[in-house]
Amino acid sequence: MIAIQWRLVALTSICNTFGDVLNTAGMKREPEVEKLGLCSLIRMLSRIVRNPLVIGGVAVLTAGFFAMASLLSIANVSFSVPATAISYVFETLLAKYILKEDVGMRRWGAATLVACGVVLLQW
Amino acid sequence: MNAMRAPTTPRHRRRTQLLVLIAIATQVAGNVFLSHGMRRAGAILSASPLDYIRAINPWTLAGVCALAIWMVTDLALLSRADLSFVLPVIATSFVLIALVGHFVLSERISGLRWMGILLISFGVLLAETTPDRTTRRQGESP
After folding, report:
1. Are B53 and B41 in contact (CB under 8 A)?
2. Which residues of A touch B83 (CB under 8 A)?
3. Count of domains in chain A?
4. CA of B82: how far to CAs of A58, A103, A107, in Å?
5. What is the pLDDT of residue B3?
6. Which of A47, A60, B74, B122 is least surrounded by CB atoms within 10 angstroms?
7. How many angstroms separate the CA atoms of B24 and B13, rounded?
8. Single pTM value for the model
9. CA B129 to chain centre
10. CB contact at 8 A, A107 and B135
11. Interface-testing mutation among B84, B112, B129, B135, with chain A (most A C-beta atoms within 10 A)
12. With contact defined as beta carbons under 8 Å apart, do A95 and B98 qualify?
């Protein structure tokens, strides 16, 4: 059972990481959402249904949602949530090297503080 | 592509912060509603999404609607801001969920949990000191 738990942790973390990176890469190809009204958001939705990166990202995040649901059905939330907090660090790493974002010391510090904080929140 | 040079105006920043607030609010509401609804539905141990149909009740429906709004808001946010900026800032929702549990549901918060809340809050404040966007979009002039 422990091996299955860790496989689900890995699957959830991988899905969250790649889902967010795919969504970001896809949304950077779209025009920036300037206005925050309903029409503007509907226009954005009508465009992204033809964006393979966003479709892939949402599909991967959905798989991650069900992996997390399965993990929660066999493990406590106090194990599940902190175990997957490592994805904050992985996502920052991929944001730097794949999305070419300028991740300086302050953003690394922020991602590390949040990951450590999420782990401590479970006690 | 180096980013800290990419332009973001105060107006751009304010609109991004508004989207951040909507994303945090819908994520907190979605998780609280969904969690409450799933507890009322009882345990469902299945890998098939079809088995989750019997968990449909007003609370889970409200949770799914709130999370759908969160997903759209998150995508709009990612069209305007960096992933490495959005991630730590959205983590404010963890702090809010813990505080709602303490002050509304009278849940106990241990010393370590308060420490976690402090660390996340410092992480959010640190991320807020960086520009929301550091990369140029396709076709954007330098």
Report:
1. no
2. 20-21, 24, 91, 95, 99, 101
3. 1
4. 18, 10, 11
5. 41
6. A47
7. 16
8. 0.83
9. 19
10. no
11. B84
12. no
Closest CA to A10 of A91, A98, A71, A92: A71
**Residue located via tokens 């029409």:** A39
For the record, the structure tokens of A58 come out as 């949402």
Q: What phi and psi values does residue A122 have, to the nearest 5 degrees?
A: -85, -5
Distance from CA of B12 to the nearest CA of A (A): 8
Per residue in B11-48, pLDDT tens?
Answer: 888 888 999 999 999 988 887 787 777 777 766 656 66
A32/chain B closest Cα distance in angstroms: 5
Find the largest Cα–Cα distance for chain A.
49
Which tokens belong to A24? 């970001």
Cα dihedral A7, A82, B54, B67, rounded to 10, equals -120
* Contact across the interface for B130 and A111, Cβ inside 8 Å: no
B79 close contact with A: CB closer than 8 A: yes
| B126 CB within 8 Å of a chain A CB | yes
* DSSP 8-state class, residue A25: H
Domain, as residue range, for A74: 2-121
- Quick one: closest CA in A to B140, which residue? A31
Single out the residue of B98, B85, B87, B83 nearest to residue B28, CA to CA: B98
Give ipTM to 2 decimals: 0.86
Q: Which 3-state string (H, E, C) describes A53-119?
A: HHHHHHHHHHHHHHHHHHHHHHCCHHHHHHHCCCHHHHHHHHHHHCCCCCCCHHHHHHHHHHHHHHH
Amino acid at B78: L
Which tokens is A64 given? 């991650």
B68 touches chain A (CB under 8 A): no
Q: Using one digit for the tens of pLDDT, what is the confidence trace for B93-125? A: 888 888 887 887 777 888 888 899 899 999 999
